[in-house]
Amino acid sequence: MRDAREGMQRNAGAAATAAALIFAAMLILGGLLLVRIGITDIMSYVQAQVNIKVYVDPAIDTREVARILESKSFVKSVDIEKKEQLLERLRVFFQGKEYLLNAFKDSAIPDAVTIKLSDNNSIEQIVKELRTMKGIAEVVYPQQLAETVVKWSEQGKRYGVILLTVCTAIAFVTVYMAINLALYQRQKEIRVKLLLGAKPTHVRGQFLLEGGLIGLIGSLIASATIYMGYAYMLFPLERYYPYIFHFPVSQVYSLMAVLLAVGTLVGLAASYVSTMKLIKDA
Question: N or C: where does the chain have the smaller number of CB atoms within 10 Å of the terminal CB?
């Protein structure tokens, strides 16, 4: 421990740079995993809401439209939604701004019929057919939203993985160079230890500890940053939209543990690779 501390102090600049790069890589990894959790929650909510909502012309009897729709082969069930029910569902979006909600009460909001389909795969064709039916003013469905979310999440994941790979590789090389520098500076010290009977594994352990500490420090800062992001951003988001987002604190703690483990392993692996040849030659 003493030798590892002294080694890090001798190469403080290289050690700090390596720790900063591991911090960046682990922060990207943690961010990607958190975004993945959020995207999963959004997709689950959207999939649960993949129903077609048909707004009925006020001049047409809503119950009659619902009866006709229910007789269609592609319809699993129908549910009539009155104006009052819609306003009650919208109440959650107007918390603290009830005066805005009251403005909708006097508006001419049409009744709606919510349709659950037997097969969601043919939703586009069904929507086209519904829009041609007499008495239907508008057809709304969330499939386009789902497709947009999936598209954005796939692009974010693709570029995020590339950025993570680059940062991890740079962090690995930086730790490798920092340990190499420490090895070159202490070649005589290493040879003396080996001549006095120290085993190569014991000498290597000192440098593995240095690399592990560098990785631990970088990933520890990244874990703390991820927790702050959860406390100040994700937790309030979950509180305001509990029906969409779910970020269990146990899941965040598990994510932090993963970051600590991965960051430390990156430092250990880079140190091990760096010490293999030099200690053997010594």
Answer: N
In whole angstroms, give the CA distance from residue 70 to residue 112.
14
Beta bridge partners of 56: 136
State the residue for tokens 């730790």: 175
Q: Which residues of 23-47 are buried (b: 16+ CB within 10 A; e: fewer)?
A: bbbbbbbbbbbbeebbbebbeebbe
Which amino acid, 229? G
What are the C-alpha distances in Å from 214 to residues 65, 113, 200? 68, 60, 21
Task: Give strand pairing partners of 85.
Answer: none
Q: Say yes or no to pLDDT of 195 above 60.
A: yes
Q: What is the Cα–Cα distance from 268 to 262, expressed in whole angstroms?
A: 10
Mention every residue, 6+ apart, whose C-beta is less than 8 A from residue 271. 175, 176, 179, 207, 208, 210, 211, 212
For the stretch 143-166, pLDDT in tens is 656 566 666 766 766 777 787 788
For the chain, list the strands marked E by DSSP: 52-56, 75-81, 112-117, 136-140
Structure tokens at 130: 């519904």
Torsion on CA atoms 156, 158, 159, 165, rounded to nearest 10: 130
